[in-house]
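If your schedule permits, I should be very grateful for your opinion on a structural question. What I wish to show you is a protein chain and, alongside it, a tokenised description of its three-dimensional fold. Would you kindly read the sequence against the tokens and tell me how you understand this chain to fold? Here, with my thanks, is the record as I have it:

===
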Amino acid sequence: MAQKPSIPKGTRDFGQVEMARRNYIFDTIKGVFSLYGFQQIETPAMENIGTLMGKYGEEGDKLLFRIQNSGEKAALAPEKGLRYDLTVPFARYVVQHREELSFPFKRFQIQPVWRADRPQKGRYREFYQCDVDVIGSDSLLGELELIQIVEEVYKRLGINVCLHINNRKILAGIAEVIGAPDKIVDITVAIDKLDKIGVEAVNAELLERGLSEEQVEALQPILKQESGIRNQDKLASLKEFLASSETGLKGIAEMEEIFEELSIVNCQLSIELDLCLARGLNYYTGAIFEVKALDAQIGSITGGGRYDNLTGIFGLPGVSGVGISFGADRIYDVLTELDLFPKALQSTTQVLFATFGKEELRYALTWAKELRAQGVAVEVYPEPAKMKKQMGYADSKQIPFVAIVGGDELAQGKVMLKNMSTGEQQLMEFGELVKALKS
């Protein structure tokens, strides 16, 4: 009995319709990235395991896909792994190619990543990320441009979003003030789960991670912050809470500068200072971002932040960068749920030639070649089948026009162009056909 074909859990096939929609997302994002001077690179699907391990925190390390060696070294531990994200490979790339680059270096990358996660709605084991980073500058202009990019991308896609923003220095300051500066990683890993598991479960995890009951109690004003408070008011109250922490106050100053610059460029994006936003990745050191769709029940669709020394682990210390990643697969799900994909994406073909006989088919081939030279996307039905079958093919692919070639059209050196949406037909010469299809 033949084996039933299947794919691994957490992965998906994409047919022609899905690919047209995915390319619409990629092209939209690429277009905005290019407006700000970012240029594209690519890195390998696999990295040396030492490049990946220890960069994502204990939670992230558990989700790495390790590649089993083959041949003579099959019995040895895996030496390679599939990339978990695009940021760590980017840092490796910057260090390895630093003599060839001009800093600040502005790059974008659109490639798949892999995580050994439990598949569920909006969470896949293989998915695409669309990353944009600037490295080699600690200017907060980087954060400003990334927020503007978020605004423009989602404006073009038609998705209403809210950008949640925080600063790891503020979180470090909070850890200092409650007397647990050495527990900053434990605190961020735990409170990053707040939306998923709730306050009580986060409190329990904090206790398990070694915080005292007094320290957990001191965190409650942060964990139970009320919604609807203005960002400026949150920063003002934070200044009092963090008055004894130089690190925390520096984080507040950075946030104030970012908000001031956003007002200068008249940013209309909905932005919320979210003190419980932690982003569990250990390499973030400054501003951190997450973007959520307002009209769809799904997790973060974009996220990122500032990292001050990610290249240091590869031998190039003190190089600051900031970046964000657009989750193409989740964006796809949101656009599908809200029915926001342009209808014209269903087909790239503008006209199908339908013929009645062998001579008519050869005649259509010459027209098709000339039309393609004019930049018109053309298909020729491969055999002179019944007209109903050829029209059905055009309908199934949502091809807007059919050029019919029968004996009369062949004799006159013309075609009969049928508009598939209105049913109207018109006899045309070649020049008229080009004009009609391009208009």
Residues 16-337 form a domain with the BirA Bifunctional Protein; domain 2 fold (CATH 3.30.930.10). The chain has two domains: 16-337, 348-438. The chain is about 40% helix and 20% strand.
